[in-house]
User: What shape does this take?
Amino acid sequence: MNQPDNGNSANNTQRQPSIIDISKKARQKLRSRQYVEARDLFSLGLEREPENPYLLSGMGDACREIGDFHEAERCYSKLLDVDKNNLFALRGLGDVCKKLNRHQEAIKMWDRYLVLRPQDKFVMTRVADSCKVLMQFERAEKAYRQILQFAPGDRFALTGVADLQHRMGRDEEAIETYEKVLKFDANELHILTIIGKLCWRISDFERSEKYFRRALQIEPNNPYALYGLGNCYRWYRQYEKAIEVWQKILLHSEGTQALHTRMGDAYLNLGRLEEAERGYRKSLEFGEDLFATAGLVCLCSDRKDWDSAAHFFGLLTVNESETSGQIEMLIRRFVRSGQRESMLDLFRYLLATGDEDKAVLDEIDSQLKRLS
Assistant: This one.
């Protein structure tokens, strides 16, 4: 016998949550960063209304946040089929393309977005960042400067402009812009060391030293600031101080190739040949290094160890197309360290043994005649 329904089916239907309720609950989960739960709720709603714009944008956002970029792209693209000017879809699809390293496509989406909302500085920053990745520096700078037109103190836009100026070798401008960034936080370590390095590049050594010292007040063992400060001492020919500063780096790490080469140079200038040799050889453990090799040529010549000097000279001039430039560099090093006579003796030894290629020997002979 059939049992009476008593209206249970109708009640079950009535108890089913509405699309609005599902969307609200899913949005709450999204705001509280419960992305998986939000995705599941949006998916439930889309089973009933597959073209609902609120559900599609929410599903795209949730999937993007959990790293399911292909599903996010599908949702945003479907939403744009329904509404070609949907701001959430244009911005979200741009973000997905950026995550997938499709920066050109990302820019196209954001450009469409900015036509509709031209003063969204967050999307303009995205455009600039992707242009920077694509090496479109002029377009990137234009985007950052558009932000600064209506938000003159925007920290991220200022940092972006400074970074571009730095990359393009506009050092003076970069310093000026980075100093504006420091007004937001005078103790921003990364910016302090960058300015110190840029001041060094434009030969403003006192200013460079000042910024490296400011960085070291914040983080006494910062390797970038220690290396930069050591370079300042090196420029002042205060080699003992340079070594003392650089040694602090080696207390916490093995250092870099450039550091060991510079330490070798400092020891060589102090006449501490064994320590100089250790520095140069440590540098060469990292790989080939033109300046460490040249340093060993000078060091071995100072010791009158002509066979070793010739060996390292051969390594220095292995690339025949660059022979002239390498020898000119070597001459400058010899002269700068007061080893002119040792250099002439080395050149005479190389000509006497004749072990080098003819082009190298011809260049040595030419230089020897000029210098003698």
User: Anything to note?
Assistant: The first helix runs from residue 8 to 15. The radius of gyration is 32 Å.
